[in-house]
Amino acid sequence: MGLGLMVFLPMVVLMGISIAQEDDEEDTPAEDPDVRDDPPEGEEVRRTGLFVSEDMFGTNAPYTVATDHGAPTSTFESAVDAFGLEEFRFPSGRAEDSGVEGEDWLDVTALTEDGALRPELTDFLEGVEGEVTLVISTTNAALEDYGEGLSDWAEMVLNEYGAKIAAFEIGNEYWARMGETEYGQRASIAVGELTEGIAAAQAGSPEILVQMGSVYGESEFGSDVDARGFVDRVNAANHTIIDQLSPEAMAHIDGVVEHYYWVRGATSFDDTSREYRYINIDLAVWEDRFDHELSFHVTEWNLRASNTACNGLLGMSVLVEMVENMVELGVDAAHVWPIVHNTTNDLGGPADDGHVDTDTQGRVTETLRGAVFDLMSDVLPGMELIEVDIPGAPDGFQVAAFERNGEFVFFLTNASLEQVDLDLDLTAIIPEIEVATGVQIGMDARSSDGTHWTPRHGRIEADYVEINGARHHYNEHDVQAVYTDYAFADGRAQASLLPFELLMIQATAA
Questions:
Q1: Region 33-50: what's the mean pLDDT?
Q2: Domain locations in the chain?
Q3: How much of the chain, in percent, has pLDDT values that exceed 90?
Q4: pTM of the predicted model as reported, rounded to 2 decimal places
Q5: Which residues does the annotated region (Disordered) include (predicted)?
Q6: What confidence score (pLDDT) does residue 484 get?
Q7: In what order do the strands lie in the sheet with 502-509?
Q8: Which of 176, 423, 438, 445 has the most CB within a 10 Å radius?
Q9: Which pLDDT band holds residue 15 (cuts at 50, 70, 90)?
Q10: Residue 113 CB coordination number (10 Å)
Q11: Above 60 in pLDDT, residue 26?
């Protein structure tokens, strides 16, 4: 245990207290009853039948940040290589009218004067290896003119790049610019045009995705214009969008979209609708209104940039919890935002840095957020989320567990303000273990100056505890990660974790 423990909270916001207000009832989505055959395991394992999608760890490529007029920047290319990225969303949040078109935002559906695909689009598609979700603007024309030429564009882009295009996503965060009625009308038009273009194309079979409701910004159901409770307003927003869709459009919509940003604290997770950001409420409406199964895409997710109280070491457990929640919600594909940027929540560092730092094993060290994302993206796709009781795990430790064909992965976070010495008996979960290893992520003290940037106060001292006479800052956003590797013998996992450090254990059943 840590010695000489003292707690200092120079920030106004305390750990575990949400920094944003959220409303109303809480609910939890039902789990998939499907369960596959069990490998050898102890009584402490409970199966969920929920699996991590192979497409869970894609990224956004914001036009003005990740590219130079469409061509991927050297920093973005370094991030793609360091994280092993293969799924992209372009032009990300820069698909809607926000200044000078082609400079501040990009309409990917616009053609050149010669009637060809614009170079900003083709440069990106040729500059990445993998699949791309293209975001279709909903603000590039008046409603009466919206969709003109969209079917021809869809046919053209698929004939040239069909193998690379995973989906067409209609709009980005509609609520920032219009209400549900107008968005639903535009979505219905776009679906019809895209369907026609896909049918005419000689290559590609992308999904058509539409946004679910959000009662913020220009929503017709914001709290400033609608006095009903939050959940009632969320339901109304979703129904209003769907009501605008023609029967033909509904038949050709393949999936729905949400953005998921963490606005709560980092020391207590409860799997409620508030923690899910009420996405389960949205999904229930769409699943009820459609007569075919819809895929579910979270095309932006991360710790919210303004949630500086939960950054640094604290943010690692948040990202693990978010992935766990997305698995529980049935997410088929997800794109983290942002991989590189000049924000407090980027995973790969500043967009103009030129390079994403890694260790000698190729693991990302640029940020703590990036480190845990890198580990998860490497080991989790295809694994089943499981529930476990680990004998010897101290109170206050956060545990996430996954399994596939006798291979187990555990993420354990020290969610306390003390240094904790772990001594875990893994044989209670896996009676016969062939091999067990561990990777611990901590803060590289050489990268820490003890301060971080906050929206209200600028750069201030980060929160810390004093352990063994030294300050241990735990929410400093711009520090690098350091890894410690373990080989565990006889199914016994032993490690010492400072507050909010994370240990990933991999164990294979004999």
A1: 66
A2: 53-360
A3: 87
A4: 0.91
A5: 22-47
A6: 99
A7: 45-51, 384-388, 397-404, 407-414, 502-509, 433-443, 481-488
A8: 438
A9: very low
A10: 5
A11: no
Q: How far apart are CA 135 and CA 161, in angstroms?
A: 15
How far, in Å, are 58, 173, 238, 289, 335 from residue 243 at the CA level? 31, 19, 9, 10, 28
Mean pLDDT of 105-124: 98
Q: Mean pLDDT in the chain?
A: 92
36, HSE (Cβ side, Cα atoms, 13 Å): 12
Cβ distance 343 to 353 under 8 Å? no
CATH second-level architecture of 53-360?
A: Alpha-Beta Barrel (3.20)
> What's the average model confidence in pLDDT over 254-259?
99
Sign of CA dihedral 150, 155, 160, 165: positive
Q: How far apart are CA 386 and CA 44, in angstroms?
A: 10
Identity of residue 6: M
Mean pLDDT of all residues in 184-201: 99
Cite the beta strand spans of 80-196 per DSSP E. Answer: 87-90, 131-136, 165-170
User: How many CA within 13 A on the CB side of residue 499?
Assistant: 25
| Helix 279-289 with 313-329: angle, nearest 10 deg | 20
Amino acid at 443: M
